[in-house]
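Ops channel
N.P.: pipeline sanity check, posting one input/output pair.
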C-alpha cells in the first residue's frame, strides 16, 4: 500500500512541475543531439553515398553499420568506438547535470519553482551526483555478477547433459533476475539523490551506502515501488510502439505526427523519471527520518543590579 501511495504522490509532484518538465525536456533533447553528432559524423558520409540510404533511413535499420565497417576496414572501428564513448560521456554528464537541478525541487515540494533555482541546484549538485553515478556503476557490476552466478550454476548442473531446456530456463531466469536487480539499484540511487537534496550535504558515498542499506532493510517497499514505475514505463513503451508502427505504414504524410508522438513519449519518460524522484522524496522521510536539529541555546540576559 505504501509504495502505491508514493507512486501516485510522485506522479502528482511531477505534474505540478510542468514548467520544469518542459525545461528539462528541451535541454535533454539538446544533450541527445550533441551525443548523436559524433556518431553522425562517422556514419552519415558513408550513408549518403549508399544506394540503400533512403530505404535504410525509412526503415531505421542499423545494418548499414556493417557496410560502413566493411568499406572502411580496420580504420572504422576506432572511429566508431571513440564516437560511442563521446556520445556516452555527453549523455552521462548531461543527465547528471539536469538531475542535479530537478531532483531537489521535487524533493522540496514547498519550494517555488524558478529557472534560476533549477540552474543553481544543477551547478551545486553536479559533482555529488556525478560521484554518485560513478559509485552506482560498482553496484550495477555487482548485480550483473550476481545474476551471472545463476547461469554458471545451471551450467555446472546441466552443462554436460543433452537437454537444452534447463539451460534455456536458467537464461530466462538470469535475465529476469538481472532486470530486478538493476531496478532495485536504480531505485536505491533515486533515494540517494533525494537524501543528498534533503540533507544538503555533499557526501555522495555515504548517501549511496545509506540508500543501499535502506533497500536491504525494506526490500518489499523498494521492489513494489520499482514495479509500479516499471509497469508504467512498459505500458508507455507498448503504446508508443503500437502507435508508431501504425503511423509508419501510412506514408510520408504522417511523418510530422510520428515525430510529435516520439517527443510525447520522451516527455512521458521524463515525467516518470520526475515521479520516481518525487516518490522517493515521499518515502525517504518515512523510512529513515532526518535527525532532529539541535535546539538553539537560549540566551539568558544578565539581571540589572543597581547599587
Amino acid at each position: 500500500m505504501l509504495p502505491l501511495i508514493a507512486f501516485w504522490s510522485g506522479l502528482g509532484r511531477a505534474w505540478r512541475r510542468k514548467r520544469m518538465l518542459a525545461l528539462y525536456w528541451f535541454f535533454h533533447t539538446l544533450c541527445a543531439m550533441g551525443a548523436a553528432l559524433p556518431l553522425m559524423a562517422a556514419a552519415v558520409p558513408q550513408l549518403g553515398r549508399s544506394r540503400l540510404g533512403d530505404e535504410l533511413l525509412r526503415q531505421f535499420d542499423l545494418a548499414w553499420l556493417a557496410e560502413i565497417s566493411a568499406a572502411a576496414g580496420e580504420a572504422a572501428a576506432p572511429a566508431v568506438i571513440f564516437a560511442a564513448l563521446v556520445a556516452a560521456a555527453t549523455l552521462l554528464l548531461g543527465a547528471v547535470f539536469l538531475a542535479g537541478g530537478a531532483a531537489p525541487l521535487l524533493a522540496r515540494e514547498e519550494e517555488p519553482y524558478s529557472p534560476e533555482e533549477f540552474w543553481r541546484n544543477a551547478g551545486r549538485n553536479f559533482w555529488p551526483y556525478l560521484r554518485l553515478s560513478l559509485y552506482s556503476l560498482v553496484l550495477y557490476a555487482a548485480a550483473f555478477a550476481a545474476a551471472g552466478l545463476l547461469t554458471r550454476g545451471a551450467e555446472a548442473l546441466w552443462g554436460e547433459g543433452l537437454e537444452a531446456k534447463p539451460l534455456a530456463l536458467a537464461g530466462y531466469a538470469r535475465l529476469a533476475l538481472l532486470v530486478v536487480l538493476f531496478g532495485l539499484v536504480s531505485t536505491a540511487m533515486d533515494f540517494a539523490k533525494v537524501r543528498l537534496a534533503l540533507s544538503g550535504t555533499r557526501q555522495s558515498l555515504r548517501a549511496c551506502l545509506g540508500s543501499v542499506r535502506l533497500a536491504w532493510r525494506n526490500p518489499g517497499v523498494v521492489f513494489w515501488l520499482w514495479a509500479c514505475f516499471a509497469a508504467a514505463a512498459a505500458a508507455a513503451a507498448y503504446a508508443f510502439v503500437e502507435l508508431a508502427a501504425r503511423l509508419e505504414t501510412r506514408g510520408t504524410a504522417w511523418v510530422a505526427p510520428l515525430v510529435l508522438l516520439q517527443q510525447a513519449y520522451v516527455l512521458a519518460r521524463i515525467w516518470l523519471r520526475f515521479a520516481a524522484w518525487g516518490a522517493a522524496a515521499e518515502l525517504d522521510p518515512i523510512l529513515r527520518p532526518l535527525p532532529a536539529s539541535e535546539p538553539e541555546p537560549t540566551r539568558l540576559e544578565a539581571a540589572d543590579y543597581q547599587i
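N.P.: looks fine end to end. The chain has a mean pLDDT of 79.
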